[in-house]
Amino acid sequence: MSIFPEINLFGLFSQLLVGMINGSFYALLSLGLAIIFGLLRIINFAQGAFYMLGAFGAWLSLQFLGLNYWWALLLVPVGVGLLGTLLERTLIRRISGEGELYSLLLTFGVALIVQGLFSKWFGVSGLPYQVPELLQGGIRLPVMYLPTYRVWILLLSLGVCLAAWLLIERTRLGSYLRAGTENPQLMKAFGINVPLIVTLTYSFGVALAGLAGVLAAPVYSVSPLMGSNILIVVFAIVVIGSMGSIGGAILTGLGMGVIEGLTKYFYPEASATVIFLVMVLVLIFKPAGLFARAA
Protein backbone atom coordinates (compact mmCIF):
# COMPACT_ATOMS: atom_id res chain seq x y z
CA MET A 1 0.00 0.00 0.00
CA SER A 2 1.37 3.41 -0.93
CA ILE A 3 2.04 5.90 1.86
CA PHE A 4 0.96 8.75 -0.44
CA PRO A 5 -2.71 9.75 -0.75
CA GLU A 6 -4.60 9.69 -3.99
CA ILE A 7 -4.05 13.07 -5.59
CA ASN A 8 -6.93 15.50 -5.15
CA LEU A 9 -6.26 18.69 -7.08
CA PHE A 10 -8.35 20.87 -4.77
CA GLY A 11 -6.46 19.65 -1.70
CA LEU A 12 -3.09 19.78 -3.47
CA PHE A 13 -3.45 23.38 -4.64
CA SER A 14 -4.87 24.43 -1.28
CA GLN A 15 -1.79 23.11 0.50
CA LEU A 16 0.41 24.67 -2.15
CA LEU A 17 -1.20 28.05 -1.39
CA VAL A 18 -0.64 27.55 2.33
CA GLY A 19 3.00 26.75 1.59
CA MET A 20 3.38 29.89 -0.50
CA ILE A 21 1.89 32.03 2.28
CA ASN A 22 4.24 30.49 4.85
CA GLY A 23 7.03 30.99 2.34
CA SER A 24 6.16 34.70 2.14
CA PHE A 25 6.66 35.06 5.90
CA TYR A 26 9.82 32.97 5.74
CA ALA A 27 11.16 35.19 2.94
CA LEU A 28 10.53 38.44 4.84
CA LEU A 29 12.04 37.16 8.07
CA SER A 30 15.03 35.45 6.47
CA LEU A 31 15.64 38.54 4.31
CA GLY A 32 15.87 40.64 7.47
CA LEU A 33 18.25 38.14 9.04
CA ALA A 34 20.37 37.99 5.89
CA ILE A 35 20.61 41.79 5.70
CA ILE A 36 21.65 42.10 9.34
CA PHE A 37 24.16 39.26 9.21
CA GLY A 38 25.43 39.88 5.69
CA LEU A 39 26.08 43.59 6.23
CA LEU A 40 26.69 43.81 9.99
CA ARG A 41 27.83 40.28 10.96
CA ILE A 42 25.22 40.24 13.72
CA ILE A 43 23.35 36.99 14.38
CA ASN A 44 20.00 38.49 15.33
CA PHE A 45 18.16 35.95 17.46
CA ALA A 46 15.66 38.67 18.39
CA GLN A 47 14.13 38.57 14.89
CA GLY A 48 11.31 36.32 16.08
CA ALA A 49 10.57 38.70 18.95
CA PHE A 50 10.31 41.63 16.52
CA TYR A 51 7.96 39.54 14.37
CA MET A 52 5.79 38.96 17.44
CA LEU A 53 5.96 42.67 18.31
CA GLY A 54 4.69 43.48 14.82
CA ALA A 55 1.63 41.29 15.32
CA PHE A 56 1.00 42.66 18.82
CA GLY A 57 1.53 46.20 17.55
CA ALA A 58 -1.32 45.70 15.08
CA TRP A 59 -3.57 44.20 17.77
CA LEU A 60 -2.76 46.82 20.44
CA SER A 61 -3.14 49.75 18.03
CA LEU A 62 -6.62 48.48 17.14
CA GLN A 63 -7.69 47.77 20.72
CA PHE A 64 -6.38 50.93 22.41
CA LEU A 65 -5.87 53.48 19.63
CA GLY A 66 -8.60 52.49 17.20
CA LEU A 67 -6.14 52.26 14.31
CA ASN A 68 -7.28 49.85 11.62
CA TYR A 69 -5.20 47.34 9.67
CA TRP A 70 -4.05 49.83 7.03
CA TRP A 71 -2.68 52.28 9.57
CA ALA A 72 -1.01 49.40 11.40
CA LEU A 73 0.57 48.24 8.15
CA LEU A 74 2.15 51.68 7.74
CA LEU A 75 3.03 52.58 11.32
CA VAL A 76 3.85 49.34 13.14
CA PRO A 77 6.91 48.37 11.01
CA VAL A 78 8.26 51.90 11.61
CA GLY A 79 7.69 51.49 15.35
CA VAL A 80 9.39 48.09 15.36
CA GLY A 81 12.28 49.59 13.40
CA LEU A 82 12.62 52.32 16.06
CA LEU A 83 12.76 49.64 18.74
CA GLY A 84 15.54 48.02 16.71
CA THR A 85 17.32 51.38 16.63
CA LEU A 86 17.09 51.58 20.42
CA LEU A 87 18.41 48.03 20.83
CA GLU A 88 21.32 48.61 18.44
CA ARG A 89 22.39 51.91 19.98
CA THR A 90 22.10 50.88 23.63
CA LEU A 91 23.23 47.24 23.66
CA ILE A 92 24.47 45.83 20.36
CA ARG A 93 26.84 48.72 19.67
CA ARG A 94 28.58 48.05 22.99
CA ILE A 95 29.66 44.58 21.85
CA SER A 96 30.52 45.45 18.24
CA GLY A 97 33.80 43.86 17.28
CA GLU A 98 33.59 41.22 20.00
CA GLY A 99 32.50 38.41 17.69
CA GLU A 100 29.29 36.96 16.35
CA LEU A 101 28.68 34.71 19.36
CA TYR A 102 28.23 37.74 21.60
CA SER A 103 25.54 39.18 19.38
CA LEU A 104 23.77 35.81 19.29
CA LEU A 105 23.74 35.53 23.08
CA LEU A 106 22.68 39.16 23.56
CA THR A 107 19.79 39.09 21.09
CA PHE A 108 18.69 35.65 22.34
CA GLY A 109 18.50 37.06 25.86
CA VAL A 110 16.52 40.08 24.65
CA ALA A 111 14.10 37.77 22.82
CA LEU A 112 13.53 35.70 25.98
CA ILE A 113 12.87 38.82 28.05
CA VAL A 114 10.38 40.23 25.53
CA GLN A 115 8.60 36.88 25.17
CA GLY A 116 8.42 36.45 28.94
CA LEU A 117 6.97 39.92 29.50
CA PHE A 118 4.29 39.52 26.84
CA SER A 119 3.43 36.04 28.13
CA LYS A 120 2.92 37.51 31.60
CA TRP A 121 0.81 40.40 30.31
CA PHE A 122 -1.32 38.63 27.71
CA GLY A 123 -1.00 34.89 28.42
CA VAL A 124 0.00 32.33 25.81
CA SER A 125 -3.41 31.78 24.23
CA GLY A 126 -3.89 33.42 20.85
CA LEU A 127 -5.69 36.74 20.39
CA PRO A 128 -7.89 37.21 17.28
CA TYR A 129 -7.30 39.91 14.69
CA GLN A 130 -9.84 40.35 11.91
CA VAL A 131 -9.01 40.40 8.22
CA PRO A 132 -9.70 43.95 6.92
CA GLU A 133 -13.08 44.27 5.25
CA LEU A 134 -11.57 45.25 1.91
CA LEU A 135 -9.62 41.97 1.74
CA GLN A 136 -12.31 39.59 2.98
CA GLY A 137 -13.78 36.89 0.75
CA GLY A 138 -12.07 35.20 -2.14
CA ILE A 139 -12.35 33.66 -5.59
CA ARG A 140 -13.43 30.07 -6.22
CA LEU A 141 -11.30 28.60 -8.98
CA PRO A 142 -11.80 25.17 -10.58
CA VAL A 143 -8.95 23.67 -8.54
CA MET A 144 -9.02 25.73 -5.32
CA TYR A 145 -10.57 28.52 -3.27
CA LEU A 146 -8.32 31.59 -3.36
CA PRO A 147 -8.79 33.88 -0.33
CA THR A 148 -8.22 37.52 -1.19
CA TYR A 149 -6.10 38.19 1.90
CA ARG A 150 -3.72 35.35 1.06
CA VAL A 151 -3.18 36.82 -2.39
CA TRP A 152 -2.49 40.20 -0.78
CA ILE A 153 0.13 38.68 1.53
CA LEU A 154 1.87 36.98 -1.36
CA LEU A 155 1.92 40.04 -3.62
CA LEU A 156 2.99 42.50 -0.93
CA SER A 157 5.71 40.18 0.40
CA LEU A 158 7.15 39.62 -3.06
CA GLY A 159 7.04 43.35 -3.77
CA VAL A 160 8.81 44.26 -0.52
CA CYS A 161 11.46 41.54 -1.00
CA LEU A 162 12.15 42.67 -4.56
CA ALA A 163 12.35 46.33 -3.51
CA ALA A 164 14.76 45.48 -0.67
CA TRP A 165 16.97 43.45 -3.02
CA LEU A 166 17.06 46.27 -5.57
CA LEU A 167 17.83 48.82 -2.84
CA ILE A 168 20.80 46.88 -1.52
CA GLU A 169 22.20 45.45 -4.74
CA ARG A 170 21.39 48.10 -7.36
CA THR A 171 21.47 51.54 -5.71
CA ARG A 172 24.14 53.93 -4.43
CA LEU A 173 22.69 53.70 -0.92
CA GLY A 174 23.10 49.93 -1.06
CA SER A 175 26.72 50.32 -2.13
CA TYR A 176 27.28 52.64 0.83
CA LEU A 177 25.77 50.04 3.14
CA ARG A 178 28.01 47.28 1.81
CA ALA A 179 31.14 49.41 1.76
CA GLY A 180 30.47 50.82 5.22
CA THR A 181 30.54 47.37 6.75
CA GLU A 182 33.39 45.97 4.67
CA ASN A 183 35.77 48.94 5.07
CA PRO A 184 34.43 51.40 7.65
CA GLN A 185 37.68 53.35 7.98
CA LEU A 186 37.76 54.14 4.27
CA MET A 187 34.10 55.23 4.31
CA LYS A 188 34.78 57.49 7.30
CA ALA A 189 37.61 59.09 5.32
CA PHE A 190 35.06 59.98 2.63
CA GLY A 191 32.84 61.61 5.24
CA ILE A 192 30.24 58.81 5.46
CA ASN A 193 28.57 58.38 8.87
CA VAL A 194 29.25 54.66 9.32
CA PRO A 195 27.54 54.28 12.77
CA LEU A 196 24.37 55.76 11.26
CA ILE A 197 24.55 53.28 8.37
CA VAL A 198 24.88 50.41 10.84
CA THR A 199 21.88 51.63 12.84
CA LEU A 200 19.73 52.11 9.73
CA THR A 201 20.66 48.65 8.42
CA TYR A 202 19.72 46.93 11.67
CA SER A 203 16.50 48.94 11.96
CA PHE A 204 15.51 48.07 8.40
CA GLY A 205 16.14 44.36 9.01
CA VAL A 206 13.92 44.24 12.08
CA ALA A 207 11.27 46.45 10.43
CA LEU A 208 10.84 43.66 7.87
CA ALA A 209 10.08 41.32 10.77
CA GLY A 210 7.54 43.84 12.08
CA LEU A 211 5.89 44.00 8.67
CA ALA A 212 5.69 40.21 8.56
CA GLY A 213 4.06 40.27 12.00
CA VAL A 214 1.34 42.69 10.88
CA LEU A 215 0.64 40.56 7.81
CA ALA A 216 0.50 37.42 9.95
CA ALA A 217 -1.87 38.82 12.59
CA PRO A 218 -5.12 38.09 10.67
CA VAL A 219 -3.85 34.65 9.58
CA TYR A 220 -2.45 33.25 12.83
CA SER A 221 -3.39 33.94 16.42
CA VAL A 222 -1.49 36.85 17.93
CA SER A 223 0.56 35.14 20.62
CA PRO A 224 3.82 35.76 22.54
CA LEU A 225 5.05 32.37 21.31
CA MET A 226 4.56 33.02 17.60
CA GLY A 227 8.06 34.43 17.19
CA SER A 228 9.89 31.54 18.83
CA ASN A 229 7.82 29.02 16.88
CA ILE A 230 8.94 30.38 13.51
CA LEU A 231 12.47 31.58 14.32
CA ILE A 232 14.21 28.19 14.24
CA VAL A 233 12.65 27.41 10.86
CA VAL A 234 13.77 30.78 9.50
CA PHE A 235 17.34 30.25 10.72
CA ALA A 236 17.37 26.88 8.98
CA ILE A 237 16.21 28.59 5.79
CA VAL A 238 18.97 31.20 6.07
CA VAL A 239 21.54 28.42 6.47
CA ILE A 240 20.16 26.64 3.41
CA GLY A 241 20.32 29.76 1.27
CA SER A 242 23.69 30.91 2.67
CA MET A 243 24.17 33.27 5.58
CA GLY A 244 24.31 36.79 4.22
CA SER A 245 22.94 36.13 0.73
CA ILE A 246 20.09 38.61 0.19
CA GLY A 247 18.68 36.98 -2.94
CA GLY A 248 19.30 33.52 -1.51
CA ALA A 249 17.23 34.31 1.58
CA ILE A 250 14.26 35.39 -0.55
CA LEU A 251 14.35 32.46 -2.98
CA THR A 252 15.01 29.89 -0.27
CA GLY A 253 12.24 31.23 1.95
CA LEU A 254 9.66 30.98 -0.82
CA GLY A 255 10.99 27.62 -2.03
CA MET A 256 11.01 26.03 1.41
CA GLY A 257 7.46 27.23 1.99
CA VAL A 258 6.34 25.49 -1.19
CA ILE A 259 8.21 22.30 -0.26
CA GLU A 260 6.64 22.37 3.21
CA GLY A 261 3.17 22.81 1.71
CA LEU A 262 3.61 19.93 -0.72
CA THR A 263 4.94 17.73 2.08
CA LYS A 264 1.83 18.49 4.16
CA TYR A 265 -0.27 17.09 1.35
CA PHE A 266 1.76 14.05 0.29
CA TYR A 267 3.25 13.03 3.66
CA PRO A 268 1.97 15.19 6.55
CA GLU A 269 4.06 13.38 9.15
CA ALA A 270 7.23 14.86 7.66
CA SER A 271 5.97 18.42 7.17
CA ALA A 272 7.41 19.67 10.47
CA THR A 273 10.89 18.32 9.72
CA VAL A 274 11.30 18.54 5.95
CA ILE A 275 13.04 21.95 6.08
CA PHE A 276 15.54 20.65 8.64
CA LEU A 277 16.14 17.57 6.50
CA VAL A 278 16.93 19.84 3.55
CA MET A 279 19.25 21.84 5.79
CA VAL A 280 21.14 18.70 6.80
CA LEU A 281 21.56 17.67 3.16
CA VAL A 282 22.78 21.14 2.20
CA LEU A 283 25.27 21.20 5.07
CA ILE A 284 26.60 17.81 3.97
CA PHE A 285 26.96 18.53 0.26
CA LYS A 286 27.33 22.33 0.16
CA PRO A 287 28.12 23.62 3.65
CA ALA A 288 28.35 27.29 2.61
CA GLY A 289 24.74 27.22 1.36
CA LEU A 290 23.01 27.01 -2.00
CA PHE A 291 23.69 30.65 -2.87
CA ALA A 292 27.14 30.97 -1.34
CA ARG A 293 28.66 32.35 -4.56
CA ALA A 294 26.09 35.16 -4.60
CA ALA A 295 26.92 35.92 -0.98
Could you say what the CATH architecture is?
A: Orthogonal Bundle
Structural class: mainly alpha
CATH class identity: Mainly Alpha
The number of helical elements comes to 11
What best-fitting shape do the alpha-carbon axes yield? globular
Any idea of the CATH topology? ABC transporter involved in vitamin B12 uptake, BtuC
Gyration radius, in Å: 19 Å
Q: Count the beta strands.
A: 2
Number of domains as seen in the coordinates: 1
Q: Mind summarizing the main beta sheet? A: 2 strands, antiparallel
Proportion in helices: over 70%
Major sheet: arrangement of strands: 1-2
Low-confidence stretches: none
Mean pLDDT: 88
Order of helices and strands: HHHHEEHHHHHHH
Report the end-to-end length measured between terminal Cα atoms: 45 Å
Strand content: under 5%
Task: Give me some keywords for this one.
globular; mainly alpha; 70% helix; 295 residues; 11 helices; ABC transporter involved in vitamin B12 uptake, BtuC; two-stranded antiparallel sheet
